[in-house]
Amino acid sequence: MFDQYLSRRYQKFGRPDPSAYLIKDKTAIAGIGATEFSKNSGRSELQMACEAIIDAVEDAGLKMEQIDGLVKFAMDYTDEMHLVSALGIKDLAFFAECGWGGGACCSTISHAAAAVATGMAKYVVCYRAMNERSGRRYGRVPGVETVMAAPNDHYGYIMPYGLAVPPSWVALFGTRYMHDYNVTAEQLGWVSVVLREHACMNPEAMFYGVPATLEDYMASKMIVEPLRLYDCCVDSDGACAIIVTTTERAKDLKQTPAVIMGAVQGIAEQGEMMTSLYRPKISLLPEVWYAGQELWRVSGVTPKDVDVAQFYDAFSPLIPMQMEEYGFVEEGEGALFCEGGERIRIGGELPCNTSGGHLSEAYIHGMNLINEAVRQVRGTSTGQVDDVEISLVTGGLGVPTSAILLRR
Amino acid sequence: MEYVKGVPLLRPYIDYDNQEFWLAHREEKLVFQKCTYCGKIIHRPKPMCPACLSTDMEWIESTGLGTIYSWTTFVYDRAAYPGIRVPYIVVLVEMSEGVRLVSNIEDVTSEEMYIGMPVEVFFDKVSDDLTLPKFRKRKVKK
């Protein structure tokens, strides 16, 4: 099946030989940190960023003065200048920022890994801090007149019609996806229900102690058809930080390294920020497919080798769509794979979003998914999967995307 | 569709690349870019043809006819643009020229919507300086 998947489109691209890829096995995640996740943090995003970074530095067994690199989200309202000043970092040799919303999460790791693999820096922090619930909430229409100025002119083609919030952008793709592959609301519901089960095992999750059934899902409020409330991620305040270094250095630190097998990015033909509506087929996600090809190319493994996956799940249809584009199932079979929940829950064929994901743990733009993937490699997750060797994280989609593959 | 008075209208960002597209609406015309070299019809407007990289482009008037490719209905007011009263429907229309565009459909309920529904364009003068192409269900002769 996987050969068939590869032959779909990929062979026409001439890509570098995998032996030229310096990141694989030579770089690792050595530390993770986070604040609590809440509806109202009661403090600044800068403070939360600092707290998460301090947490990650301590987790790794490093000292703050050893940090010499920083990678931020372009969308983050904090930056290197404020962080260096607040954290007392003396010198920063490497800094970068990654664009495209949640598409940036695994991009930060690929930038950091490239920096340590090429000797530009030794210990690079990747972070995201957001008061996305109490502050500027994405699900509400902001002062969008300014949002539409170049380079965001693509929003000018949708906003005047009231297509102005993230769930509605995904809903347009969702309607067509459900139509093309006969996907039912119940099938999407299982994604939501299983992730809630996982959140109920995780005391840090915003939906810890709040179980939900398929009936609850079906009864939840319609937001933008076909998406219900339970199809949407939980808007959150919080911060996460991740430390990347070489595997050699990571071995001398406090934690079991989560070794990076691949860290990739992808933009595909006619790819836009949430408005890739003008392509031949919108029920497919070419950038996700492309990032997948890159991931399997550089890492040398295939989907069947993956033990646990954290799929970017801002909205529930995105999980089955990604399963197809990363090659876990055939085109159009993602939702069927999720039906009943058995295959995607802990203990199943492909346990997904084992901390509850964005739908039920918190929405920190993919960075909390990376933390969970690292815990799975370390064996310390509240939803631990047995004998994890290989752990996948994917970045935001419907936007320029990214992914990482970690191993023990 | 009912606009709510007092809420700022969302206007497109008009620049060198797209001004013909937006300004044509004021004359109640829907136009698309066409590459005069390879003939490809393009939307959204671009400075060059992505198929052949020619910058020699012309604007052609659309037939205004299309079919529904996808849609979504805004139901929950707090997750909608407050300037339009819910429920309202946003459609992705596949035009007979082969390009797609986002718009609204009027005089149709969510229950009546389906993929493949034939539609035709009309122009909604939302304000003195903003006219938008919108769609209605089209009767097809059998």
Task: Tell me about this structure.
The complex is a heterodimer of chains A (408) and B (142). Chain A is 32% helix and 16% strand. By secondary structure, chain A is α/β, with parallel strands linked by helices. Chain A has a single domain, classed as Peroxisomal Thiolase, Chain A, domain 1. A 9-stranded mixed beta sheet of chain A has the order 3-2-4-7-1-8-11-10-9. A two-stranded antiparallel sheet of chain A has the order 5-6. Chain A is globular, with a radius of gyration of 20 Å. In chain A, 60% of the residues are buried. Chain B folds into 2 domains: 12-61, no CATH class; 63-142, OB fold (Dihydrolipoamide Acetyltransferase, E2P) (Beta Barrel). Chain B has 1 helix and 8 strands. The longest helix of chain B is centred in the first third of the chain and has 6 residues, at 19-24. The mean pLDDT of chain B is 95. The interface between A and B is large, with 43 and 42 residues.
| Strand order across the largest sheet of chain A | 3-2-4-7-1-8-11-10-9
- Global geometry of chain A: globular
What composes the largest sheet of chain B? Answer: 5 strands, mixed, barrel
Mean pLDDT of chain B: 95
Distance between the termini of chain A: 26 Å
Strand content of chain B: 35-45%
Which fold name is given in CATH as the topology of chain A? Peroxisomal Thiolase, Chain A, domain 1
Structural classification of chain B: mainly beta
Q: Could you please say which CATH topology of the largest domain in chain B applies here?
A: OB fold (Dihydrolipoamide Acetyltransferase, E2P)
Mean pLDDT of chain A: 93
Quote the distance from N terminus to C terminus of chain B.
Answer: 30 Å
CATH homology superfamily of chain A: Thiolase/Chalcone synthase
The proportion of residues forming helix of chain B, as a percent range, comes to under 10%
Largest interface, counted by CB within 8 Å of the partner chain's CB: A-B, 43 and 42 residues
Largest sheet of chain A: 9 strands, mixed
